[in-house]
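pls design
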């Protein structure tokens, strides 16, 4: 993510033409904060920093320094941006002293999410996150009115604020119920797809996940050099995958993502993390120390959802590595030591074929099963079902129809069930996989259904 070069300078060249923002940061603003502001198109006209190890508990900067800055601030500044997550007390006090809208890191991230929420599910998630964010602020304003710090706020005083608080709570409950309904519908759709193999692209925001999905599946989901372009999961089938492999792309991670946002998007993320194969997409155009920090955030988010032995790492945007790949490779291997590593560029196409081949490979924990079917019509429908759920090895013989396929234990259960109505036979040719309990159901041997 590039810093919004020129925004500061442009505003400086034409003072007063466009209202701009005053940016406050402890020590110095982070590149990522500029990236977030760029994503929201917020023009920054002035940056003020204060060296201190901890923010002031009420005024963020020391009160003296804050007053000095605000006294020198005219109408060209219409809002204050703060590169930190403010407490409700700091937020409301800064608002009151500056008499301007105050937006901290959380507000800006939420603003981006609001802009990018294009589906009912994403919209409900974002509204919930915004309302959960808003409630403590309303409470703090109410507190400041009652303690006399904010006389006359909202004209009606405590009465109006109380009513607003209640209204926000009611809206929150309504949105939570709506989201629950949407999730139930999604769960139903997911259940229908549950037997199909899935791979999920996960990673830091802007790491190139959607570009990779598009390149692998020939789709055209929106790609942008801005943060959080994707909020709702997109699922596409990998062409020529048999059985079909569904690839999903979802919301990206960010270091220190506010808990309100994390909790609103948890279900979406967990759904992605349930995939059979996870692909962590890492942007190797980042400097190694930046990449390391981002991978750490990804690591935390993934391990929160359970350990992943089958995780693959994709060094994305590898066209930007003009010199050696060693540095990026060391960083990627340190973050995910046991993972298979791929390189990919959606610009030059490098590595895409290898990744596609990797995705088409059958997983190692499948059972090899021989089927013998009578040659009538039901056998045909069983065969077409088998082709969409198992890796059917070449060489199907007819009369009787005999074939060998590799399939997972759950698919085997269903195959057995379906065979009953067809009147066929199956024979498991290899041993029970390590992670299964040996039981009569899946032990080797001829079984008549
Ligand atoms: N040089 C180069 N740029 C790439 C490559 N892949 C993606 N990009 C650029 O990286 C930026 C982000 O790409 P996206 O695919 O939107 O990234 P994302 O991870 O889906 O981002 P979010 O949905 O915002 O989390 C875009 O400007 C892409 O054009 C690549 O292989 N090489
Ligand atoms: Mg995306």
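designed seq:
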């Amino acid at each position: 993510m590039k810093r919004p070069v020129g925004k500061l300078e442009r505003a400086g060249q034409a003072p007063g033409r466009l209202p701009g923002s005053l940016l406050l940061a402890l020590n110095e603003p982070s590149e990522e904060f500029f990236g977030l502001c760029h994503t929201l198109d917020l023009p920054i006209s002035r940056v003020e920093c204060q060296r201190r190890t901890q923010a002031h508990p009420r005024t963020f900067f020391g009160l003296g320094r804050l007053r000095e800055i605000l006294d020198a601030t005219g109408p060209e500044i219409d809002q204050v941006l703060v590169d930190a997550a403010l407490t409700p007390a700091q937020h409301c006090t800064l608002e009151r002293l500056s008499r301007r809208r105050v937006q901290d890191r959380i507000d800006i991230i939420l603003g981006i999410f609001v802009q990018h929420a294009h589906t009912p599910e994403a919209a409900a998630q974002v509204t919930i996150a915004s309302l959960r964010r808003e409630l403590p602020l309303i409470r703090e304003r109410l507190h400041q009115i009652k303690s006399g710090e904010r006389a006359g706020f909202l004209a009606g005083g405590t009465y109006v604020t109380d009513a607003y608080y209640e209204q926000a709570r009611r809206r929150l409950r309504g949105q939570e119920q709506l989201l629950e309904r949407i999730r139930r519908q999604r769960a139903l759709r997911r259940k229908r797809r549950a037997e199909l193999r899935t791979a999920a692209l996960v990673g830091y925001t802007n790491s190139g996940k959607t570009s990779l999905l598009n390149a692998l599946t020939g789709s055209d989901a929106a790609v942008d050099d801005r943060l959080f372009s994707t909020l709702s999961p997109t699922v596409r089938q990998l062409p020529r995958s048999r059985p079909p492999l569904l690839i999903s792309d979802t919301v990206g991670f960010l270091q220190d993502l506010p808990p309100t946002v994390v909790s609103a998007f948890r279900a979406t993320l967990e759904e992605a993390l349930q995939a059979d194969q996870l692909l962590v997409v890492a942007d190797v155009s980042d400097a190694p120390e930046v990449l390391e920090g981002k991978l750490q955030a990804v690591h935390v988010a993934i391990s929160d959802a359970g350990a992943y032995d089958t995780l693959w790492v994709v060094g994305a945007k590898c066209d930007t590595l003009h010199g050696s790949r060693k540095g990026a490779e060391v960083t990627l291997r340190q973050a995910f030591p046991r993972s298979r590593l791929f390189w990919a560029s959606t610009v030059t196409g490098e590595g895409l074929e290898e990744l596609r081949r990797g995705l088409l490979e059958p997983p190692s924990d499948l059972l090899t099963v021989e089927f013998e079917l009578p040659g009538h019509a039901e056998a045909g429908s069983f065969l077409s079902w088998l082709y969409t759920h198992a890796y059917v090895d070449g060489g199907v013989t007819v009369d009787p129809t005999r074939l060998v396929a590799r399939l997972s234990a759950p698919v085997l259960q269903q195959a057995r069930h379906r065979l009953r109505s067809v009147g066929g036979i199956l024979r498991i040719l290899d041993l029970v996989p390590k992670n299964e309990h040996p039981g009569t159901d899946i032990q080797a041997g001829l079984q008549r259904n």
